[in-house]
Specification:
By secondary structure, this protein is mainly beta. It contains 1 helix and 24 strands.
């Protein structure tokens, strides 16, 4: 870890001196170094234009100020002029400067390097994904006018499975309802009524083309995930990711990010209706099972009212192998299982 003395007390950078632009003559950037011993890995991508924009690895061992180099290569037929390069990282990470201008012009095949400094906060425990983006604007070159490159760096390891992320007690036995707190008010599903509806511990649940499993844990223990951006390891190849759960309140929707083994990623939005009263197709969800009533802190009640479980899905790239999934950051979404469907 480098000293953090360059980080100002107000969250801004206090770096003296100008940042240099170093014109290069090579047509491609130098290869990125291997992952460090801190278990941080990285992948770099550029948009599909003739102009290539690459971002160097970012030292995430904060608190510190890291130096980042952005290389722009003119692969277009014309000389590139009026080149400006901007760079940014995660929200709240200060960068100095935000934009650099390259003097002169670049011939076909030539490169220019812009150097930035970014304030890196102290590393957080657990798994994180950080994305850094550089954009070049210019005249001439390939004629597109702009090109963007990104670098995604991961730190830590995703949780082994969804069960490792269980953080909520959603199902209790009618003989002991006190541990339940599915909705934040001490209420929970009845294990007996779920069994009547076909949902038993460890049982198979077929929905939207996927074979899922109902949590195989005792009643009154953590059995579902209240979504908070957790990264969950998941292996498979298919056309969609199926999620089993239900919502608390009518605002149980968000975006999940799927990461593939080739370093690429995709996103998809989904949502669940509130476990009771919302229309069963709210947010585009599919009803899986309805149980009669619920368990309250003082025992079973609300007989005659349906408390429900739903399925929803987001698209996958069927040509790619899934590596892990990052859940939305909305705690109103509760998940009992997820699986890849063909």
């Amino acid at each position: 870890m480098r000293p953090a003395g360059l980080i100002g007390s107000l969250g801004t950078l206090v770096v003296a001196g100008a940042l240099a632009l170093l014109p290069a003559t090579t047509a491609t950037a130098a290869p990125a170094p291997a992952a460090t011993a801190t278990a941080t890995t990285a992948t770099a991508t550029a948009t599909a234009t003739a102009t290539a924009v690459t971002v160097s690895p970012v030292d995430l061992d904060g608190p510190a100020v890291s130096t980042v180099k952005v290389t722009v290569t003119n692969a277009g037929p014309e000389r590139m002029r009026s080149l400006k390069v901007s760079f940014g990282g995660p929200t709240g990470w200060a960068v100095q400067p935000s934009v650099l201008q390259v003097d002169g012009s670049l011939a076909k095949g030539a490169s220019a390097e812009a150097t930035f400094r970014i304030q890196v906060p102290e590393r957080r425990p657990g798994f994180t994904v950080r994305t850094f983006t550089a954009t070049a604007t210019y005249r001439g070159g390939d004629g597109a006018g702009s090109a963007t490159g990104t670098r995604t760096q991961r730190s830590g390891t995703p949780l082994a499975n969804l069960a490792a992320a269980y953080n909520n007690v959603g199902v209790t036995d009618e003989r002991d309802t006190r541990p339940g707190n599915y909705d934040g008010g001490g209420n929970s599903f009845s294990a007996q009524k779920l069994a009547d509806a076909g949902l038993r511990p460890g049982g198979s649940v077929n929905a939207l083309g996927a074979e899922l499993r109902w949590p195989n844990v005792p009643s009154g223990t953590a059995d579902n995930v209240s979504a908070a951006g957790q990264a969950i390891a998941l292996s498979g190849r298919g056309s969609r990711l199926v999620l089993l759960g239900s919502g608390v309140t009518s605002g149980a929707s968000g975006t999940a990010t799927v990461y593939y083994t080739d370093g690429t990623s995709g996103t998809g939005s989904f949502g669940f209706p509130n476990w009771s009263f919302d229309p069963a197709n709210a947010h585009g969800a599919t009803l899986v099972a309805s149980s009669d009533g619920r368990n309250r802190p003082d025992g079973y009640g609300n007989a005659g009212i349906a408390y429900r479980v739903f399925a929803h899905s987001i698209p996958l790239d069927p040509a790619k192998q899934v590596e892990f999934v990052v859940l939305p950051g909305n705690g109103n979404i509760h998940l009992f299982d997820l699986a890849v469907a063909s």
